[in-house]
User: Fold these one by one.
Assistant:
Number 1:
Amino acid sequence: MKKGTKLSVAARREENWGWIMVAPTIIGLLVLNLWPFVQTLYTSFCEHLGFGHYKFIGVQNYVDMFQKPEFWKATWNTIYFCILTVPVGLFLSLLVAMLLNAKIKGKGIFRTIFFLPMVCAPAAVTMVWRWIFNAEYGILNQMFGLHVNWVTDSKVVMIACAVVAIWSNIGYDAVLLLAGLQNISKSYYEAANIDGASKVTQFFQITLPMVSPTLFVVMIMRLMASIKVYDLIYMMVEETNPAVTSVQSLMYLFYRESFVAGSRGSGSAIVIWTVLLIGMITVIQFIGQKKWVNYDV
């Protein structure tokens, strides 16, 4: 009886220490994530009166938001940005990961080089790319003899922003995919070589199915980041740029509504819509992953 009591006390003490250890993370999630979301949700149903005062107006902010062509344009721009960046970014990241996983000299140096864009300040990266895309003396137009206004032409400005986004994230995604590739047992490839399978067959029958869980995680992360894109567009395209409406994302529209126009309620409604959009796309991805993600070892 006493022995059982001692074990119970020890187990309770261990449980208490467990709660103490995870308490900072839980408090951080509540204070920095959950509570701001609740505030944003409430603010989306209010009119901002200034100086921290709000007036509850129901769903009027959402009604006004859905009636604005600018909002639907920003929604399409966000989706279009995802279409441009996610598939191409995943393909290039997987290609780079496979090259870094191959038997080549100086793999560590190449891994560092590809990862460097992630440690560079986004402002510095954007400024360099703006020089590259400069219509008059940019290196891109100079090298290929082009006369394209990459940042001010509404037809190509989204492509220019997508190129910068893909370039900036290839290294990080490639490192994650490289970890997935290195977890694949070499015995699968040895058996495939004995059976006479080609490299292409090995890729589609072994590499792609085995790395699919990591690829799925990277895809979800990249989709979320693309939907929430703001800083890249803000630094690439100035507010006075005539092409700003062609590249304006939902988060960029949120910034303009909340901090330029001073309509915090409308801005909060845009944030809630963005969260719902992320949720819908994530649910679709989790439903679709059952058909192509392989979790069998």
Number 2:
Amino acid sequence: MLPPLVRKTWRDDRRAIIGWAAGVGAFTAIYTGFYSQFQGAAELKQDALPQGMLDFLGIADMLSPAGYLQATVFSLIGPALILMCAITLAARTIARPEEDGGMEFLLANPLSRKAFAIQRLTAAASAISVVAAVPWLLLAILIPTIGMDVPFGNVSAACVGLIALAWCFTGIAFLAGAMSGKRGTVLAVAGTIGVATYMANALSNVSDGMSWLKWLSPFYYFIGADPLHTGWHPAHLLLLAGIGVATAVAGVALFDRRDVGV
């Protein structure tokens, strides 16, 4: 039996969870479904983009099925949607009720503050994981249906990387909320880190002198090793998950110690 606070959090956030899952699902299905139409003009469309732009976006090619998926689902918009979902739901765990004045009611439950934070985080992280897994479930259906010649094991590696990236930023956003108790701070901190680290990875692709920046970016560990072509990279996945766990643990500890606005 799941803890009551986890179930309550899911109920409170159900519309947001369903909305994010539907949006991510629609994006994945639409772009993947365009593959057969895209193939007829793929070479022209790739030639239309400057090589520098392709390098900046981390797109190796747009001609192969794996390259098409990387360019559409896994390059920019797909991860951006997942991270916006992760940051938004993580901001609801502590920052929203504290800022809205509802924390006193939630803390009236017979729970320690540490248990309260863990259960709120568990509910949010599990919901975010479900949303981040939507592309994986849809691609399992669409790839054989459309006839895309890409190993599903490689697709799975990229999809698990997307889930690990979501965990990474869930932890970061949760830590920001646990420290500040303000949604604006969560959105600013997590959003700034997301944009800055995406740019770091992108710039590392276009300049040899800035190639070291990739090691600072979660996006490199998600897609930089090109799992759609090369398969699994367990060390990268563990690092992303480890950042998420470490920041989440730090958030729980800080929330347990600081004064909370009720």
Number 3:
Amino acid sequence: MSTITFEVDDSVGILALDNGPKNPITSEMVHEITDMLNDVRSSSDIRGLVMASRGERFFSIGLDLPQLIDLERDDFAAFFNSFNRLCIDLYSLPVPTIAAVNGHAIAGGCILALCCDQRYASNGRLLMGLNEVKLGVPLPYPTDRMLHQLVGARNAYEIAASGDFYGPEPLLKMGFVDKIIDPELLMEKAVSRARELGACPGGGLSKIKEYRVRPVVEDIWTELEASEAYFVERWYSDEVRKQLRDAISKF
């Protein structure tokens, strides 16, 4: 069974995470989103993309820890590799991308939203954050670089070092989200914005995006292999295994 849905609404692709109430990110979801992004990249008809969730409480709870905890090291390394490359693909997609965040976006779920060009958040009960440090691992290096570009060094350090979750107003103040919107209008506004940006004539907008993301992506590639090796090493340390199992008990 698929973990996402995808439809096109008048030149705007709408990707909805659809993996149960909490939308955990599995290896299947990573591969399905990657394939979908490849289709968007090669399509001349899709001029914008909205990433959303079919659930009401969670955009995504993050990586599927119960699925990942017992993987052999090489299998987890392959998953982590594919997740990071998905993030780079989404971040550098040449069409405008809007995350319509209608529920909690935690850890890996927050990362997916971060990879989009803009984030529209519901003004309901919603928390977003990157709590990796509380599990004993650093942010994935692509995430760290994208976060610094988005919110600046001071806010990026606070978000990453605290591991805290934030509501809509603090997220807006830090520049992590672009707008706070009533839940019933969230998708309409996100799709409208993606369509508006995608309608810009010629290739000007895609080149503007390329200028913005290219230095970050180039930086990521210089450190990606070493940073992934360090993350995997930490993931299999005794300290982190204990934290992961405690987290799974609340998953």
Number 4:
Amino acid sequence: MGVDAAYEALRERVRGLTGVVMIIGGSEVGKTTLAQMLLRDAVEGGRTVAYVDGDLAAATVGPVGCIGMKVLSTVGDCETLSTPDELRFVGAIEPSGVVLPHVVGVAALVGIAKERADLVICDTTGVITGVVGQTLKYHLVELVHPEFIIAIRQGQELDPVIAMLRRFLSARVAEVEPPDDLVPASPTDRQDARAVALRKDIGDDPPRWRVQTTVFAPTLPDGFDVSRLDAMLVGVQDERGRCLGLGVLEHTDGTVSVATRYGDEMRGLRLGSIRVDLDTFATSRVRLRELIFGV
């Protein structure tokens, strides 16, 4: 079967499903493109469908570093995917060191999505190899319980993950190659896209809000040097623990403030694992444990 025919067969199969359809595969193999096809198929068929976007580095729903959820019931909704109905903050671009909040966030949003739609399309991060990739995919499938998994594979890189999911979790997995006309983005293009996404959510000159050290999660230890918080990405949380959007911390003369457009509803801040340059929106990775405890 050719690639085009294989995709059409997958789309036809998904049209008859309810529950969760999960898409796995490496970076730049067409996971998001396929997800958008499935979403459009569903709404064109008169269905209400939800999209849970778990790709932290190349977010389609909501900002970078977050898991986003969007409910769609019309074709027009397909054109506004970037505006989320729900967000969960992870605060990282790669899942290394944040597997737990990543898995919990995806599972929480899938649970909400299943209450609002009879079909949920769940996109995933492109990290699929090594201990982190395998652990992440295993626990995602374990908690989300997808009815069907679509694996977009290049070569044999997905073989260990697919074998593990089938052996331990009896997962139903269909394998397909990337589309013939796929044009992968370069690493530079991906970095530029992340900067654009961060700028869109944070803004070029967002309001600054002075914050106390008691508003953070994780809690800062006694005697913590607050200057180390400068340029750290944070998730702005409301009183129900929902992520409203992103902010960036600034330290000046012993005072900490957060640059964010979401200050009016802010009740707390979750520390991420990224520093953000507010001039260029370039990012650099930070290990949260080292930031807080210096180890």
